[in-house]
Amino acid sequence: MRKIQILGTGCSRCTTLAANAERAIAESGVDFEVVKVRQIAEILAFEGVSALPAIAIDGVVKSCGRTLSPA
């Protein structure tokens, strides 16, 4: 199963990003697991994280510092 990782400490923007990712998955019907990564050491292990929240797909950072919409 593919993974979408939400990188953030649990702030409201991180929570919104996770909810939007889950909504996008539900609407698209694709098979993804949403994983919340909250530990700073784990977040720093991802290459390319410059701001939080961030989102990664299968370990590759796709967006930083933005709360993406479900679209």
Account of the protein in words:
Helix content is 31%, strand content 30%. It contains two helices and four strands; from the N terminus they run E-H-E-H-E-E. The protein is of the alpha+beta class and 71 residues long. The protein starts with a strand and ends in a 7-residue tail after the last strand. Strands 2-1-3-4 form a four-stranded mixed beta sheet. The chain has a single domain, classed as Glutaredoxin (3-Layer(aba) Sandwich), CATH 3.40.30.
In short:
The chain has about 70 residues and is an alpha+beta fold. It has a single domain, classed as Glutaredoxin, CATH 3.40.30.10. It is about 30% helix and about 30% strand.
Helix content: 25-40%
Number of separate strands: 4
Radius of gyration in whole Å, from Cα?
11 Å
Order of helices and strands: EHEHEE
List its salient traits:
2 helices; 4 strands; alpha+beta; globular; Glutaredoxin
Strand-helix topology:
Blueprint: E1 2-7, H1 12-28, E2 32-37, H2 40-44, E3 54-57, E4 60-64
